Amino acid sequence: MTDFSDIDERWLIENGLYDIADPSHLYDEIVNRRERGDDGIEAPVSKLVGRFSLPLRGITIFGAYSGTGKSSLAAQWGLHAANSGRKTAIMSLEMPPDHTLELLAEQASCVPDVHLPYIEKFSRWADQKLYLYSSTDVVTPERVFEFVRVARTMLGCELIVIDPLMQIALPSEPDAEREFITRLASMSRDLSCAILLVHHLRKPPSGGLGERQKPDKSSFLGSTHLTGAAAAVCTLWCDPDIRELRTNGQEIPTDSGPEYLFTVHKQRFAPWHGSVSLTPHAKGARLLCNSNLGQYRPIVMEDEKCQSDGRSITESPSGTTADISPMRRTPETTSEPEPKTTNALMEFLS
């Protein structure tokens, strides 16, 4: 290691030499990272497990055409994280928090019309696992930074969902978008949290394929600074023809191809790029599933009845499941004390 003992410490700081690392010191970080393995936020569908997770210490930009389920999938990811013991904060700026809670309860039970007793029980289960921002107003960038800082440092959240970028009042200056995304990325690295930033895609030009055209990195609204600063870039695409058939209650041909495609366009910390096909939940819950069977495992809180036929939510309607990922269960409590939500914090979240 270079010996700086005789050099003035202030001079080193002012000239940035404390930011320079010797390779031998970086070796220990590589060893620790390999021992740690993939510490990202696991996907809620097993097709992506081992291929893609939301990177801790990085921003994931996630987009889809309007009305094709990007907010639902972001919520599904957050719910899965919370159920896996990784606290999640959701800043939904287009959906009121009570609607978001109802969506999460629907996804947890895998039932589209959730009974109020289940929502009540789910809300108690979700306390200190899920935190919802209590406003749908347009917010300033500083408000977003404050939310991220509070969610990570005071609440212990490892995943922070911001939905959507369009509801953040960025200044009109050309560099405002770049400054916002780079600062947010820096916070993600410094605080060791994953940030899922939901964003809109450009409407495809008329006269072409329209929404039949699969999006790519260039489809996001705004400048290339967004995707450039992100650690991962993903899109969700829905086949508009199949969606219309489903909406009209018509039969979907078996050879029609995938209804949804989740595509990873960029992944800075892992090599895999590609697409996986997904299917809406067979019973109509706002969930995406692994296969055409459209089945998904409910969260097991207790033997809480929520289905109209009186079955427990722990029972599968057909006795089979397409999701081969391990059964999701309520995380066991640990001996570590839960962070207390102070009055000041409650005022901030509201």
CATH level-1 class:
Alpha Beta
Which blocks of ≥5 consecutive residues have pLDDT under 50? Answer: 304-340
Q: Would you identify the CATH architecture?
A: 3-Layer(aba) Sandwich
Number of domains: 1
Strand tally is 11
Form type: globular
Q: Report the biggest beta sheet as strand number plus sense, adding barrel if it closes.
A: 9 strands, mixed
Name the helicity range.
25-40%
What's the total helix number? 10
If you average the pLDDT, what whole number results?
A: 85
- Under CATH, the topology can be stated as Rossmann fold
User: What is the CATH superfamily classification?
Assistant: P-loop containing nucleotide triphosphate hydrolases
Derived from helix and strand composition plus strand pairing, the structural class reads: alpha/beta
Span between termini: 50 Å
Rg, rounded, reads 22 Å
The percent range for strand residues is 15-25%
What is the topology, as strand order, of the major beta sheet? 5-4-6-7-3-8-9-10-11
Structure description:
The chain is an alpha/beta fold. The protein has one domain: P-loop containing nucleotide triphosphate hydrolases (Rossmann fold, 3-Layer(aba) Sandwich), CATH 3.40.50. The chain contains ten helices and eleven strands. Strands 5-4-6-7-3-8-9-10-11 form a nine-stranded mixed beta sheet, with helices on both faces. A two-stranded antiparallel sheet has the order 1-2. A hairpin with a 6-residue loop joins strand 9 (260-267) and strand 10. The model is unreliable at 304-340 (pLDDT under 50).
